[in-house]
Amino acid sequence: MLVSACQVPIEVAPTDSAAVVSTTTELVDAPEWLSFEVRYSPRHSVGRRRLDVLTTNEGPTQIVVTSIALLADHFEPLSAETKHSLIGPGSTVAVKADFGPLAGCESGQQLDAMVLMDVSIDGADPISIQSPLDPEPLDRIREFECNEAAVRRAVAVTFGAQWIREGATIRAELVFTHMDGEEAVVVEAVGGMILFGMQPRPEREPPLAILEPDADPVRVPVDMVLIRCDVHAVSQAPDGYAFRVWIAVGDREPIAITILASAALQTQLEELVDDCLSA
Questions:
Q1: Over 80: is that where the pLDDT of 96 sits?
Q2: Which is nearest to 161 in space by CA: 226, 228, 217?
Q3: Considering only CA atoms, which of 233, 135, 143 is closest in space to residue 193?
Q4: What is the model's pTM?
Q5: What is the CATH number of the domain that holds 238?
Q6: How far is CA 165 from CA 41, 223, 279, in A?
Q7: Is the CB of residue 129 less than 8 Å from the CB of residue 29?
Q8: 125 exposure class (CB count in 10 Å sphere: 0-12, 13-18, 19+)
Q9: How far apart are CA 76 and CA 18, in angstroms?
Q10: What's the domain range around 182?
């Protein structure tokens, strides 16, 4: 579906521009001795939409990547990013590239992707190259984000206002409210964080709950159990005490969303951790 980047006027743009840009004026296909592969790790991209373009130089000389942009049907385009990535002969370097907001979830067609780079070869002036990318990693990102958007539209999830502390356990409940759409919402599982585990009470096989459209809110009792209180774990605990819930809408794959404990519940959880540290 992509229009060839060679047909698009290319100019330098500010970093907040919505246009894909390169720093030179004419794009050519990448030489055969350069290859590219997308790698995405959400764990290493917390707080920003960034992936690695693994760039392999099988040629006889060093190259320097001076800019990079991702052009994909999956996401809104962004401006090229300035780089200074040296890649020697026989080497592979992960050149990082940001990707834009989701372009939409409606298309059922094959989605394509390519990388645009400015590259200096053996010290010469940079040239602009383009190369198609395997879209499969981007397909997975898009599928997850579309599923997440469907979940966020369809259901609201909160902790109930009441809970009980019993030893190292907080007995609480999750409240699920069907908000929008004509598809059923399926609650598959719940999970904890570094300090606390969380499991349904009583423990049982999924699904934990099914919400039909226009159904009343469903309450799922859960136990939040302190599993660690060592100094290292406490220092690594996320702010806000984020717990996980796996939810599917209709026949989509379940995805994990994070649910933050309310301020009052977080205070109770912190008191439990403090008591453990001082014991």
A1: yes
A2: 217
A3: 233
A4: 0.74
A5: 2.60.40
A6: 37, 10, 17
A7: yes
A8: exposed
A9: 7
A10: 149-278
